């Protein structure tokens, strides 16, 4: 059981600090038993994985508010400010609370996945990695000790050759072997510890980074979103590669590379001049690496771009299978696919060649360094400058420099090449503009009161030659029921998208209740403005998930009550699973009409003040259409606004006002009777009224055209 009082306090705190909470933020708390009293807060943040709350030790200063308060007698609350010397004003309550020293105050840093602001993609990864500095340093230390222990094996060999074999000193052999066995055991433990630490951290870094990019992708302004969804998905997935490379290369820089220098120093101590061999071979390896990485980068960039496009095409062809099959487009798609594959191979070939050559080069370098150590070492040993044991120890240690360090370099270079290309793509996504209202600092009014005001609004889709919408002035008052009609492509859906606040005008403004919609916090706007898009899609999940998505707690009886009014209950009753009916990605499993009905039901459950419906009943039969529209009518309040795009002329009498659109402009706007009378041919509008010719491209023009032909 969870403590609902603390949950309410968190919600008030979020509101007071201007941070958005997800609708289901407290879902995980339902399954755990929370402690009573002041410990509940620590338990709550622990379960949700938030940063721990900070306790304010002394009497809070005015600049520290708002604060979460625990009072031993009254429980949890949120304090807005001091209200006189000894009283405190509470958030969400008109009463003040007297201060007493037994009260405990906390500040809490609520998670904001978009808090990174303007940083680059690589900054997001470094931030996540740096936040886990301690485990990384631990892993680095484990590497250091593990490397030190490898020194033990080389010194062991040295002692065997120099002391044990010449003197047949078996006691020394026993002691040394026992010592080195212990060292090896320690080495095993440290390496395993390092692997475990890195894996755990890698998972957490993955979770943090992927949350950031997922939230970022969600927050991109819809009008700025690149059209290729599959391509963008592939670009976002590039983050996994980047994370992997960044964590392995940070360890490389942190532990392996500095250790190579230490090993050279040890060789110098044991083998004197022999250290010259790694002193020469290591910089050569590093220079080779630098040179190769430049060659490889050119290819990876292009291969990555084509690879992402390939992913986009795969998604598109799977999504549009029906259309492709119905139009025998398989060969066409296959041709495009093969061209892309050839393009990728073309760009990847130099990368593969370079990485293969790099592998051979580094292996030759390793062998040469080995021959250098052994050959020169043999000369030094033969001339008595070093012992045979020292030669053996130097060869083992130089193997440690050339082995793991040099051997992993070609791989790391290629991986970095791809990771840098992924970072470029991610940077491109980071540069896309976000919904103004998705971050902190957006307007968070308690209520939005009033109607719409559009002033000199112009809207053009990304890459479009000309604007799809140009509206000089347009106002809708509370309580109005407006139908938007017009020919195809006349801008009706675009108008609704702007009114919903999901799209922002390129110029001008869309105000709702005198607030610029693009400035209003997203959760507040969504609660106030309900929108059913023309091609409303469902998500993978149950029917219930789809009906209550984003609505918080809605019970099954509430869902069924609404479903009865729209006749969705027929669908629920007809399926064995009822509300648990599984819906596949994109709404597969339901018919087009049923999908629309689910969208309407969702809106009825959320009961917003503003209803924006884009041809919601286009695929409904007449009976269901009437039931659904009646259901909407019955819940509309006097000051609710209803704006519906429709091509169905018989529905127009349900509205008080008609807006007619053509070529992205409003060409007629007035009370239903007036507009109908003006637009209908004489025979329809009634005797004695001189009808104007219908506006081209509107519902009525097609209607009259039809009449003319019969
Ligand atoms: N995503 C988009 N990218 C580019 N142009 C678009 C996009 N969506 C719509 N358009 C263009 O904007 C114009 C207005 O389109 P809109 O969807 O608003 O028309 P509509 O009146 O709702 O049409 P319909 O009755 O066919 O639904 C059209 O010329 C269309 O080609």
From TrEMBL:
The biased composition feature labelled Polar residues covers: 698-710
Annotated GO molecular function terms are: ABC-type oligopeptide transporter activity; ATP binding; ATP hydrolysis activity
Q: Where in the cell is it found?
A: Cell membrane
Q: Gene Ontology terms, cellular component aspect?
A: plasma membrane
Keyword terms of this UniProt record: ATP-binding, Membrane, Nucleotide-binding, Transmembrane, Transmembrane helix
Where the record annotates domain ABC transmembrane type-1, the positions are 137-405
| TM region positions | 136-158, 164-190, 251-270, 276-296
- Which SUPFAM superfamilies does this chain map to? ABC transporter transmembrane region, P-loop containing nucleoside triphosphate hydrolases
What name goes with this protein? Answer: ATP-binding cassette domain-containing protein
Which organism was this protein described from? Pontixanthobacter aquaemixtae
